Amino acid sequence: MKTVAYYSGKIETKNRECFVGNQKVDCPQTGKAFTTAGDKLDLLPQIPSLEKRSDPVVFIILLAIIVFFSVLSIFRIKIFGKTLGEYIKPIWYLILISIATVAWQYLFGLKIDDGLISIRISQLVWEICIAVSAYKLIKTADFGYGNLFFLGVLYSLVIHGLKATVRYLFYEKTFLYLADRFLYGSLLVMVTVFIGGSMFLFFRQKKIIK
User: Fold this and answer.
1) What keyword terms does UniProt attach to this protein (predicted)?
2) Is 15 within a domain?
């Protein structure tokens, strides 16, 4: 039986061999970008200036997001012709399900040794929530592509903003890794929103859904 050991720490290269401390490990695959801690990057290249952490910066970002949505709500500012309440009220329970799914992933899903099947299933849950949200808002609130874009932004902040916060606070990840995962996750959200939304808009135009 082959045993695979996991070593956490910064990967250093010596004579074309990779080490975490004094332990020799497999070097990251060529052609792929990794952080200095060995985390794989899906979209961003290695950016040394982002290989850091800063509590004040994170606090400012979170505060800015809270203030932004508070202003939208209090002053009933319209985004693509709809207020924040018009986006959230019809789908509030789907947003809560998405948040609960993210919480489950970190509290239980990562502890289940099933080859990440549980994580993939939980990801499918929030993808379904996003698609159902697009359908519901198109059907009941006459949403268009601009509204779908903001819906994607909203879900990106809710799902992947929450994930980024958890990774920063409890997994000590750097800004580079957080930015990469947030952008990658947000891309999945946008693809889900626009593929599902485009299909539902087509059905509405053809009078298949009313």
Assistant:
1) Membrane, Transmembrane, Transmembrane helix
2) yes
